[in-house]
Design goal:
Number of strands: 7
CATH topology: Rossmann fold
CATH class: Alpha Beta
Mean pLDDT: 85
Largest sheet: 5 strands, parallel
Shape: globular
Radius of gyration: 15 Å
Strand content: 15-25%
Low-confidence stretches: 1-18
Length: about 150
């Protein structure tokens, strides 16, 4: 029996490379943070959790994430500010950023100019985040805005 070399249009080697990718999730809602953490871990990601923007920023050097998922309404340092800091630092500029927020895209459209790669409006299914991460990490592309 031959094994497929593609899974849902992604090379098997690319899927294997995603396994163990480290994702930082910055979310101030402890319940949502736990749900996202559990779902991402079940999908094979190593998750670093932060409950505010300052903790997320200070954890970057040690965590060295392959992707960052963040809420825009974080305490101590907003997600808006965190995205700007990530994009102005050469070490973090290439790291994909996915914004998860209760705001409509039209309300925060200027954040797209800062170089985010994905946008999910709350509430969303955790599987949507997993799918978005898989797209970004496997293909290096820009995720669809939802």
């Amino acid at each position: 029996m031959a094994f497929p070399d593609h899974v849902d249009g992604v090379l098997v080697e690319e899927v294997a490379a995603m396994a163990g990718s480290r994702v930082m999730v910055a979310e101030d809602d402890p319940g949502l943070l736990e749900v996202l953490k559990v779902n991402l871990e079940q999908a094979g990601y190593d998750v670093v959790a932060a409950r505010d923007g300052v903790d997320a920023y200070l954890s970057l050097e040690v965590a060295r994430p392959d992707a960052v998922v963040l809420d825009l309404s974080l305490p101590r340092m907003s997600g808006f500010r965190l995205v700007k800091l990530l994009r102005r630092d050469a070490r973090w500029k290439p790291v994909p950023v996915i914004v998860v927020t209760g705001f409509a895209f039209e309300e925060v459209e200027e954040i797209a100019d800062e170089g985010i790669q994905g946008f999910l409006r709350k509430p969303f299914e955790p599987s949507d985040l997993v799918d978005t991460l898989e797209l970004l990490l496997a293909r290096g592309g820009v995720a669809l805005v939802s």
